[in-house]
Amino acid sequence: MVATAQIPDYGSERGGPRPVGGSRKGSPRPHQSRTHKQNRLLHAALNDIADQLAWPPETGELHDAVWWKRRITLQWLIETGETPELVESLDGLQFALLLPHTSDLTTKQCAALNEWLFVFGHQHGVTFKKIEA
Predict the structure, then answer these.
(1) Residue 89 lies in a domain
(2) Are 83 and 77 in contact (CB under 8 A)?
(3) Does the pTM exceed 0.85?
(4) Hey, how many other C-beta atoms are within 10 angstroms of the C-beta on 58?
(5) What contacts 116, CB < 8 A, 6 or more positions away?
(6) Residue 39: inside a domain, yes or no?
(7) Domain residues for 107?
(8) 13 near 29, Cβ under 8 Å?
(9) How is residue 56 annotated by DSSP?
(10) What CATH code is carried by the domain that includes residue 107?
(11) Residue 69, SS3?
């Protein structure tokens, strides 16, 4: 049996939000997706975190921006009360947690994620570079 919990506001690049089960319809997006400026800000901040913050802190191990993007998105979802989608493999032997693509976030969601990311970074001593508009 496939266990799913769907985040209702995440649209897909091909249409509106995905209903439970992940199928897509050809309807238009109900909300404006993140802006290019938000995307640049998100990725620049992720790179700053990746360059400066070891995780777990006591290990001294640095990770790339993709590693951080997945974990920050997951933690942001958890702390905002959202539930990522949990899916079972077709053979029923493995499970995976599916996170929304940041490209599917609305402007409001991306702003909230960016705000969460900056607070997290500041709490852990990350110095963020200035991003040009």
Answers:
(1) yes
(2) yes
(3) no
(4) 7
(5) 72, 75, 76, 79, 80
(6) yes
(7) 32-123
(8) no
(9) S
(10) 1.10.3790.10
(11) helix
Measure the CA–CA gap between 75 and 92, rounded to whole angstroms: 26
Tens digit of pLDDT for each residue in 53-103? 999 999 999 999 999 999 999 999 999 999 889 999 999 999 999 999 999
Reading phi first (left if > 0) and then psi (alpha if -120 to 50, else beta), residue 92 is in: left
pLDDT of res. 102 = 94
Q: Omega before 56 cis (within 30°)?
A: yes
Max CA separation in the chain (angstroms): 48
Which pairs from 51-58 meet CB under 8 Å and 24+ separation?
A: 52/125, 52/126, 52/127, 53/121, 53/124, 53/125, 53/126, 57/124
Residue 78 lies in a domain: yes
Q: Provide the H-helix boundaries in 1-133.
A: 36-52, 65-79, 107-123
Domain count, the chain: 1
User: Residue 26 falls within a domain, yes or no?
Assistant: no
* Sign of torsion over alpha carbons 114, 115, 120, 121: positive
Q: Name the residue type at position 84.
A: P
